[in-house]
Structure formats: structure tokens, C-alpha cells
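ESCALATION

Customer reports they have been waiting on this structure for their group meeting. Please prioritize. Original submission:
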Amino acid sequence: MTSRYDEIAGNLTLVLDQVKNAAQSSGRNREDITLIAVTKTFPISDVHILASLDVHHYGENRDADAAPKAAAVPGTWHFQGQIQSNKLKSIASWAHVIHSLDEIRHIETLDKVAVHRIGVFLQVSLDGAAGRGGADTPALSALADCVLGSSNLDLLGLMAVAPLEVSSDQAFEKLANIHAGFKASYPMATSLSAGMSNDFESAITHGATHIRVGSSILGSRPTPH
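Update from on-call: job pushed to the front of the queue and completed.
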């Protein structure tokens, strides 16, 4: 029977090969792409395995699950879930990077409760659908200005989730165009968080610098009890 270590190591090797090939085929440097292993719903023991395999960027969607893992395993911890105001103080205590900011009030609250510097991505909606999170493109400049006026936050770039209704290439091409326009006004915002297990190769082709990969590395998510 395959050990959990061997299972994760084998999956990780395949993902890293895909990342390398996608970078090469689009004329990019592999070193410019940060792989975030999404550890949501998986146990701390899996995070320890990832750390032993030289993966040190971890992504979580729920504060309650993430806080004990971040306390147990050093690394760069990313929050990428929908933000609730009453969770921001706790999130700010462990997260080094937040990918899902799309409201000024959350940026202002985060700045007040941050105990260390936090890198932030502004989440942009690619289809305007309610419930999926993300600001409309015209709202990005006000959000960015709020981050730049903060004391504890660093503007990294944009994040988006590809809508299911269109191809990932279409979605990420649109995102790349939005990001290009955004960088013209905010040249420090060079990072682009896009791509998950089912579409990260397309995201890399269209300029993603941070990819958020869970099931392709860790397997099917455990069923919550």
C-alpha cells in the first residue's frame, strides 16, 4: 500500500513537471511562479509532509482550520476564502498573504488589526456573478488606493477565479488584459494569483505568478463529518 508521503510526493512531482512545461512553453521562467499548496480540509500531518518536500507556501479558505496549522508549521500562509469581517482579526494573526480582498471596509479593518505586514491581492470578478466574490474592474482603483494608503498592507496584484461558463483560456486572457491595465496605474502590483488544479497550466500561459493547487497534490478532499 502506498504511503501518504509517497502519494503526495508522486503527485507533487507531476504538478511541478506541469508547471515547468507550462512556463517553458509560454517563454517564462519557472522561478517566477509560486506554487501554493491548498491544504484546506487536510490534516496538519499533510502539511508537514509538504514542508519536508520543500513546499512552503500553503493556502487555506477557512480561518478556524488554518490557524492551528499555521501555528504548527512555519511557512508562508495564504488566505484565499471569502472574507467575513468578524474573522479578519484572527486571519491577520496568521496569514502572510490574503488573496480575496474586494471591499474597502475589509481593507480598512485589516489594516487596523494587522500585527505584521500582509501582502494583499485584490479579487476581480470576471463575470460579475454575485456570490463568487470579486470586485468589478472599475472598482479596482479605489481598492488599490485604499491599500496604498494603509500602514500595514502591501499591494501585490490581482486574483481571480475562472467562471465555469467559459473556457479557462478565455477567462485568463481577460484577466491578463485587466491586469495589464491595472499595472499601468499601479506598477508595483506585478503579481497575478490565478489557476487551480483544473486550470493552472492555462493560468501560467496567461501570466499567473501564483497558482493555488490542492487536489492535484493532496488528492480528493476528505468528506466533512
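Sent to customer with the following note: The mean pLDDT is 96.
Escalation resolved.
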